[in-house]
Design brief:
single chain; 255 residues; alpha+beta; Aminoglycoside 3'-phosphotransferase, Chain: A, domain 2; 7 helices; 43% helix; globular; protein-ribulosamine 3-kinase activity; transferase; kinase; protein-ribulosamine 3-kinase; kinase activity
């Protein structure tokens, strides 16, 4: 994210390993950082620019040369597939980020199905299994307004809620985001978690959509993306997130 120069993130210095399974990242300390408030509007713009960065790289490469797959623009590499070059974690459980050409298939398999399988391994929930058998068939319906190759991979924060965002105490009140679970995916995915936990003002979303236009099925897709985060919490923290996950799936299956 730092390489895109679209949004401020703490500088990464190095990684410490205990030569077993534990590693720690040493990051920049940002003095006087406070909860996101006045900078929420600016963050909406910055996040949209982050999401457009890879898309714009692709447009420039397409304009200036014939390319297949990946190409380079200075220090930035255009990514034509969904996924990431390594596993990332949203919590402590690693996520599968295998490269895939199709976003809908990637999300259904490596986000929803992977989480559902994880929950089923822990508790074996019959209703969850039955709802998933219905939902997985109709997932493409939530993307009917995304014609042809309209969904282009965007670099995502991946875990963007108010606990992973702040602003400086400086006069310009610069927004800062941190603790990512990054991968290349659909830009709308990054807006869903903010709706689960709140904490972002309406001007954050309004400013974002002044840069990236709100699609007709955006709200319904956000419910689909919210499902991942609820399932993820169910897998991490247990049955306190069961009711919310099941209710979302029931609502989605009605459409």
């Amino acid at each position: 994210m730092a390489a895109t120069k679209t949004v401020r993130v703490p500088k990464a210095y190095f990684v410490i390993s205990d030569h077993q399974s534990t590693k720690s990242a040493v990051l920049e300390y940002i003095a006087n950082m406070k909860s996101l408030s006045k900078a929420s509007q600016k963050l909406g713009e910055s996040l949209a620019n982050l999401h457009l960065h890879n898309i714009n790289l692709g447009k420039r490469l397409s304009k200036h040369s014939n390319w297949v797959g990946k190409g380079r623009d200075e220090n930035n590499e255009y990514i034509s597939k969904f996924g990431f070059h390594c596993a990332t974690s949203c919590g402590y459980i690693p996520m599968v980020n295998e490269w895939h050409n199709d976003w809908v298939a990637f999300y259904a398999r490596f986000r929803l199905e992977d989480k559902i399988n994880g929950v089923l391994e822990n508790c074996g929930d019959r209703e969850l299994r039955e709802l998933w058998s219905k939902l997985q068939i109709i997932i493409p319906n939530f993307f009917k307004d995304c014609v042809d190759n309209q969904i282009v991979p965007s670099l995502l924060h991946g875990d963007l809620w108010n606990g992973n965002a702040g602003e400086t105490g400086e006069t310009d009140e610069t927004p800062i985001i941190f603790d990512p679970s990054s991968f290349y995916g659909h830009s709308e995915y990054d807006l869903a978690l903010a709706r689960v936990f709140g904490g972002f003002r309406s001007r954050y979303f309004d400013t974002y959509h002044s840069v990236i236009k709100k699609a007709p099925l955006f709200d319904k897709r956000c419910e689909l993306y919210e499902l991942f985060h609820n399932l993820n919490h169910w897998q991490h923290f247990g049955n306190s997130y069961r009711s919310r996950s099941i209710n979302i799936m029931k609502q989605l299956c009605k459409n």
